[in-house]
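Dear colleagues,

As part of the handover before I leave the project, I'm documenting each prediction I ran so the next person doesn't have to rerun anything. This entry is a single chain, and its sequence is reproduced below.
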Amino acid sequence: MGVLLTVEQKMIRQMVREFARNRLEPEAARMDREEIFPAEQLKTMGELGLMGMMIPVEHGGGGVGAVAYSLAITEIAYACAATAVTMSVNNLTCDPINKLGTAKQKKEILEPLASGRWLSSFAITEPGSGSDSGSLTMRALRDGDDYILNGTKMFITNGAYADVILTIARTDPEQGKRGLTAFLVHKGTKGFSVGAAEDKMGLRASNTVELIYEDVRIPAAMRLGDEGEGFKIAMMALDGGRVGIASQSVGIGRACLDEAVRYASEREQFGHPIADNQAIQWMLADTATELEAAKLLTLRAADLKEQGKPFTREASMAKVYASEMANRAAFRAVQVHGGYGYSKHFKVERLYRDARITTIYEGTSEIQRLVISRSLLTD
């Protein structure tokens, strides 16, 4: 896929760009510094249709497709990467509910999530289970018409603010990844609590917490899909989530490039702008080239998703390349700024910290390479 965007997609990109530059960019540094969750901005984003962009209008979403979603995440991340991941996770959880949810779940849960009235989180990671999600130990025991959940989740984005948590738990201890099941857990359910918040390097305006489930009883009607489908649902959600994180990475990378170009053009040493130096020019050229490649990989994966075609391999390709590109772009941007780049007075310091997580969450770079290589070797 080339960069042949529709009129609607271009309009959405422009609308989100204006919102991000006017409402997010001016507050992003303060939100990062003071760890302020962007609740008010998210409310506006819901009103703009950004919290369930791929969900049909009849279920509260924007119905604009994965390409427009990718463009929107990129614009939000350019201004505030922490807000972008909050938006990404909400869109991530909406997708499997839309595909597998019951009519009641779509009416009572999907609609408020997709419209931005509610916020969601996706709880799969545990203290002893990260990349190996098939080994998670949280139990869900059937008890008549209910399930009882016990266990702990960690590194959960939006966890303290989520109205609904898409939770993956083990219903069969003997079946490995085939023994996992997905549940929709409402905040306020007896036995459910929010644990410690993470003190993170970057994305400090994004909420990341531990979630504790102690004899949490939920009705079987809040199971998403059938028993044993939890791993499949998680992988479905993560495929879409990787498009979101790739898009976030493109936004971070573009912000790094713009900041580096601006500084190199203004900063003078030895009587001329440092942009006149070939060493600087090549850093800018490398970032611009890699950024374009990352953007095209990401839009390709988004386009395949939008068409309903398989896109797992392409999502992993986009995620691994774009996230590693963002880290290289941030490194170069700080290097171009010199000592000023190490100061919190300049945006590139925040971009450098925010970029680091992109190669880790929603599947590390190593996991992405496993996904890609296995798809090649099993075709």
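Residues 253 and 326 are 5 Å apart (CA to CA). The first helix runs from residue 7 to 34.

All the best with the project,
I.
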